[in-house]
Amino acid sequence: VYKRQLEESLDGIVIGVKSSRKTIEKDQWLTSYHEGGHAIVTLCTGRPLHKVTIIPRGNAGGVTFGFEQESQSMSFSEVLDHICVTLGGRIAEELIFGYENTTSG
Fold first, then answer.
1. Catalytic residue flag (residue 100)
2. Which residues pair with 87 in a beta bridge?
3. Is 53 helix (H, G, I), strand (E, B) or coil?
């Protein structure tokens, strides 16, 4: 068993199997910028980034994975970082496509 096979299996369990649906090129661009926004903000907060994908899986058009610390509580600054990462995708869409074309992500 190789590391890649383990990661693909874990992805299938956590976020769903790869979708066989066809994606429109516009949606791929939107997803790329959206996930890129999450990734950039994750790195800016100093949190480690594990994986970014724009391959549709389950109900998700793309996914950004960071490594979360195992903890029962979060400090105020950690909560703010989490909010910033969560909004990073939306902000990236808004910057590129404009407010009126921003999706629910």
1. no
2. none
3. strand
Please say whether the beta carbons of 45 and 53 come within 8 A: no
Of 7, 8, 35, 70, catalytic:
35
* pTM for the full predicted model: 0.80
What is the CB neighbour count within 10 angstroms for residue 60? 16
> Measured on CA atoms in the order 18, 89, 65, 68, is the torsion positive or negative?
negative
- 8-17 pLDDT, tens digit each: 888 788 777 7
Taking a C-beta distance cutoff of 8 angstroms, is the pair 62, 54 a contact?
Answer: yes
Contact 57, 18 (CB under 8 A): yes
pLDDT digits (tens, 9 = 90+) for 24-46: 888 889 999 999 999 999 999 99
